Request: fold
Amino acid sequence: MPTGPEYEKIRQLLKSHDLTTVCQEAKCPNQFECYGKGTATFMILGERCTRNCRFCAVGHRPESLPDPEEPERVAEAVVLLGLRYAVVTSVTRDDLADGGASLFAETIQAIRRRSPKALVEVLIPDLQGDRSALQVLLDAAPDVLNHNIETVAPLYRAVRPQAEYRRSLELLRRAKEMHPGIPTKSGIMLGFGETHVELLQTWQDLLAAGVDILTMGQYLQPSGEHLPVQRFVPPEEFAELAAKALALGFAGVASGPFVRSSYQAEKLYRQALGRMQGLTDPLT
Reply:
């Protein structure tokens, strides 16, 4: 596994600040690359989830209440890392009245106070469809709101038995309705056994919900207790899917075997923003 001074710097900083990253908890294949570039995706609200999705390596059954000091620790880490773009995600906390939305808002606000120029993307759970909780989070004005659809509708019962496809779509639609200026983003994993027709329908559903940015990556089985991989999608097919998704109407698409929700998030955001604003050079 790759190592180096930047990787070790991030690892030690996270440990000293008692912070969790989804990079480690979800066994992301890109953590060495991202740590090596001085970036990480912070995971708030603890290390354990109230749900037990059949694809996810994160532990379940939360054992404690959220730490009220966590937002300030995340904000300090953003300062120490000199991040221009911070990604904040969480486990799902159905045991909390607002699903953790208030702590997301406090984390965004803390980062804004400490790093006014930093952009903040949030990758949120479905908040059980609570409109007021979503409003609290959006009022903190994240630069990007991400919520992953994860898979196609027919596979939800097998892949995400405690989630609902339509509820996730409704959250994305409401987010765009409440704050049209905030780009929305969603991600899909491939390899569960979805068909091309089902995938195309999912794209169309996301576009109808106002989603601007799409990520697609290969599902990798984290352990023998998780769902097996039904198919490994070739890299060239991921490239073809990206071209088709862009042609269909997404402003930004990242597609590849190791692509995950926050992989090269700043680059994808700027490319999408450029297309949304009609710029010829999306990186300027």
